[in-house]
Amino acid sequence: MSIESTAEACRGQLKQLAELLQQLPTGSYAHCDAGVLGTSIGAHVRHILDHYDCLFNGLANRSIDYACRSRDNRAETDVRYTGARLATLLERLKSLSDGVNGAVDVQHEPGSVDAPANRSSVGRELEFLISHTAHHYALIAVLLTRFGIEIPKDFGLAPSTVRHRASLPGCGDVQRARH
């Protein structure tokens, strides 16, 4: 798969989030739910954005550190601000080309500053972000149900799960069973 097509898959996933954010009832984005680990929709969205920022921040020196996140609290509480950040991210993903693919060093919660980085590629890291985002969408879906908000079709499902379900007789419209 090319960088452009993988980046487009990321864009599709993030566009789904941007559409969802526009439909959320006032107060639901930043509301912490004690029944779901004291987390909020905004906290999961911020976490997703942080990971994308780490990727883009690391491209120049070919070194991505997912533990070095900004943890911008405004992205957890201000849905309009977050929408603007998403729009910027969507543009950055649109500008990725196959020319950026190649080896990168990746740190991800290494446990020690002395831990060696792992070798990866930009394409593989985009694939990681797709999977990572899908899993956080599943957690967001739980929060949405607790608010009584209808979950968009296929939200929180990995693309491979959506394809698999579509191949099964009578399962194409199954709504909420995960994985």
What does this structure look like?
53% of the residues lie in helices and 7% in strands. The protein has 179 residues and is mostly helical. Strands 1-2-3 form a three-stranded mixed beta sheet. The protein is globular and about 45 Å long.
Give a short synopsis of this structure:
Helices cover 53% and strands 7% of the residues. It is built from six helices and three strands; from the N terminus they run H-H-E-H-H-E-E-H-H. It is globular.
Main sheet: strand order = 1-2-3
Radius of gyration: 17 Å
Oligomeric status of the shown chains? single chain
- Give the averaged pLDDT, no decimals: 87
Low-confidence stretches: 174-179
Beta-strand percentage range: 5-15%
What is the structural class? mainly alpha
CA-based shape: globular
Distance between the termini: 23 Å
Amount of helix: 40-55%
How many helix segments?
A: 6
| Strand runs, count | 3
Major sheet attributes:
3 strands, mixed
Give me the strand/helix succession. HHEHHEEHH
